[in-house]
Amino acid sequence: MINFQKKQVKIISVIIAAVFIFSIVALGVSQYQSGMAGASSSNVGIVDYSQLISQHPGMQAAREKYEDAAKQVQEEFSQQAGSMTPEQQQQFIEQKQKEMQDKQKELLDPIRTSIETQVQSVADSRGINVVLDKNNVLYGGQDITQEVLQKLQAEGDTTTTSDATADTATTDSTATNENSATTETSGDATNTAQ
């Protein structure tokens, strides 16, 4: 009886998998055909999205922040693992995986938004109606990856410059406040001495 049920479950699983695969193939073919029809009537651009992500000026800092967070989680787990039951360890791991996924999203969302903004800017300036990932295109399209990268680099330079300016302004105002406090303290000491 149990073997019969296992066989039924396997058969049902195979059928579901086959339907799923067929659906994906059918969807891919229909999207390919509609993409080809749309490509002939519009100006299509392509970008290497993985290159844009990996070479984005903010990616290195995001990667470092993520690695630091991962090290902290590892250290925390190493410190607490000895006093946890296996269930508590599993719960800890699941919670930290969720936190790390949230951290990854938090770090990558601004990068993705920046890329999308620059892709749209380049596409608009060139009169491109549709931009596709290079990995999804068999033939054709204007590759705008390098132009987008240049805009991202310029955006990164501007952000770095404005961050440095803000840091300098903060440092200057802190130094000014410290000097004011020193002057006031000196003045108070002079008044007290009189």
Automatic annotation (TrEMBL):
<dbReference type="Pfam" id="PF03938">
    <property type="entry name" value="OmpH"/>
</dbReference>
<keyword id="KW-0472">Membrane</keyword>
<keyword id="KW-1133">Transmembrane helix</keyword>
<dbReference type="InterPro" id="IPR024930">
    <property type="entry name" value="Skp_dom_sf"/>
</dbReference>
<feature type="transmembrane region" description="Helical">
    <location>
        <begin position="12"/>
        <end position="32"/>
    </location>
</feature>
<dbReference type="GO" id="GO:0005829">
    <property type="term" value="C:cytosol"/>
</dbReference>
<feature type="compositionally biased region" description="Low complexity">
    <location>
        <begin position="157"/>
        <end position="186"/>
    </location>
</feature>
<dbReference type="GO" id="GO:0050821">
    <property type="term" value="P:protein stabilization"/>
</dbReference>
<feature type="region of interest" description="Disordered">
    <location>
        <begin position="154"/>
        <end position="194"/>
    </location>
</feature>
<dbReference type="InterPro" id="IPR005632">
    <property type="entry name" value="Chaperone_Skp"/>
</dbReference>
<dbReference type="GO" id="GO:0051082">
    <property type="term" value="F:unfolded protein binding"/>
</dbReference>
<protein>
    <submittedName>
        <fullName>Periplasmic chaperone</fullName>
    </submittedName>
</protein>
<keyword id="KW-0732">Signal</keyword>
<comment type="similarity">
    <text>Belongs to the Skp family.</text>
</comment>
<keyword id="KW-0812">Transmembrane</keyword>
